[in-house]
Design goal:
globular, about 290 residues, 8-stranded mixed β-sheet, 8 strands, about 20% strand, alpha/beta, 8 helices
């Protein structure tokens, strides 16, 4: 084991102890390293128990806290009511193998029977992103090169951080430097997904209704048979971004349904997942984030 890798191992173990109360053991043969930490604790008034919200994070085996690597913060899909952070585990592993640090956020879910807006979801997404940026020096990442990423409702959260007015807390911004969006439900206006929850207040939640010239570049993946997001919605988002001078790529996949991009999806026999990853790598290379 090299001195650099040995030094990275010691720092990783110490950092894991501090954030999780445990030690991370790293093998020289591992291409990536997995850990978990708590970014926020929510008091529960009914049971008296606190809920700890965590982040799974994946980093290269030669990671060091002295690094300044690009990073991605992923949010899972599930209609704001379900899903797990592991949805983007394969994406994280592949990106970490290319030198990035990846985070997968656990956020509070809404009650399926209620019609409450996703306030808790966007609050947790904002807090998680700011926590990661505020601790960039501990995570060995560059605070100016952190992307948001997500699928479906998680894609909404990722786009929300990028498109809505920034909210700086204690000097820390929640705005990402790029967005990786997999069939994101980013239009919550009339006729769009999520309108039943946000109602007339859709402009407060809908990224597609808040596109401005200071928004980050994005890459969007969408199936032409998506029953939640019409192709016209994706094309309109791309076109408005470009009108504002914001780079936005839209990649359409003929005949593919919602969720087609997932690593375990049968459609395409893995070829479509592979294609979305190669296009993601190309997008990140164009930003100068990976080789």
């Amino acid at each position: 084991m090299s001195h650099r890798r040995s030094f990275g191992f010691v720092l990783a173990a110490l950092f894991a102890c501090q954030l999780m109360g445990g030690v991370s053991f790293v093998s020289a043969e591992q291409p990536v390293v997995e850990d978990q930490f708590v970014y926020k604790t929510i008091a529960n008034d009914t049971s008296g128990k606190a809920t700890k919200l965590f982040v799974d994070w994946t980093r290269p085996s030669d990671w060091s806290a002295e690094d300044s690597r690009p990073a991605v913060v992923f949010f899972h899909g599930g209609g704001w009511t379900g899903g797990k952070p592991g949805q983007f585990a394969s994406h994280s592993e592949e990106l970490a193998e290319r030198g990035m640090v990846c985070f997968r956020v656990k956020y509070r879910l809404l009650d399926k029977k209620s019609k409450t807006p996703p306030d808790a979801c966007v609050e947790d997404a904002s807090d998680a992103f700011r926590y990661i940026r505020a601790n960039a020096s501990k995570f060995g990442i560059d605070p100016k090169r952190i992307a948001s990423g997500g699928g479906s409702a998680g894609g909404h959260l990722a786009a929300y951080l990028g498109m809505m007015d920034d909210q700086v807390v204690d000097g820390v911004s929640r705005k990402p430097a790029a967005m990786l969006l997999f069939n994101p439900v980013y239009d919550n206006g009339p006729g769009g997904w999520g309108t039943g929850r946000v109602g007339d207040a859709y402009a407060t939640y809908s990224p597609a209704h808040n596109i401005t010239k200071d928004d980050p570049p994005s890459i969007v993946f969408l199936g032409t048979k998506d029953n939640l997001i019409p192709v016209a919605t994706g094309e309109r988002f791309r076109d408005v971004c470009q009108e504002k001078g914001v780079r936005s790529e839209l990649h359409l996949y003929e005949g593919q349904p919602h969720g087609f991009f997932n690593a375990k999806k049968v459609e395409g026999g893995g070829e479509i997942y592979r294609d979305t990853m190669e296009k993601t790598f190309a997008f990140l290379r164009s930003l100068g984030w990976i080789d």
